[in-house]
Amino acid sequence: MKHRNGTSSYDNQASELLAKNLKGRLMLVTGSIDNNVPPSNTYLMVNALMNANRNFSMLVVPNERHHYGPHTPYVTRRCWDFFVRHLAGNTPPAAFDGMPKTLDK
């Protein structure tokens, strides 16, 4: 719903409007054909972060939707690595292979 002043009822929920307030680390992950949160929404955030000169990490999973299908183990490992580096302050294992190979198992 648009208000007379040009704002929307959703403005207070729009991440890209808050990007300038980011402190710390952020990792964005999107599937290239996500139909739940379209990549264009993620790119709005990317644009806002860049305009605010904020650092972030990003992973785009090709040809996947909101859930990453056979790439889920890879995405999970990348997220864990990010947490280990930036929350725990440690170095993730170089060749961690403890993730299931697919979601089908």
Q: Could you name the key traits of this structure?
A:
flat, 105 residues, alpha+beta, two-stranded parallel sheet
Topology (SSEs and partners):
Blueprint: E1 27-31, H1 39-51, E2 57-61, H2 72-86
Parallel strand pairs: 1-2
Question: How would you describe the overall organization of this protein?
Answer:
- The chain is of the alpha+beta class and 105 residues long.
- It has one domain (22-105).
- The chain has two helices and two strands, in the order E-H-E-H.
- The protein has helices spanning 39-51, 72-86; strands at residues 27-31, 57-61.
- Strands 1-2 form a two-stranded parallel sheet.
- Helix 1 links the parallel strand 1 (27-31) and strand 2 (57-61).
- The model has no long low-confidence stretch (mean pLDDT 87).
Structure in a nutshell:
This protein is an alpha+beta fold and 105 residues long. The protein has helices at residues 39-51, 72-86; strands at 27-31, 57-61. The chain has one domain (22-105).
Q: Using the alpha-carbon principal axes, give the shape.
A: flat
Which whole number gives the mean pLDDT?
87
β-strand percent reads 5-15%
The total domain count is 1
User: What oligomeric state is this?
Assistant: single chain
Largest pleated sheet: 2 strands, parallel
Rg on CA atoms, Å = 17 Å
Number of helices: 2
Helix coverage percent: 25-40%
Q: Write down how many β-strands occur, each being a DSSP E stretch of 2 or more residues.
A: 2
Spatial separation of the terminal alpha carbons? 45 Å
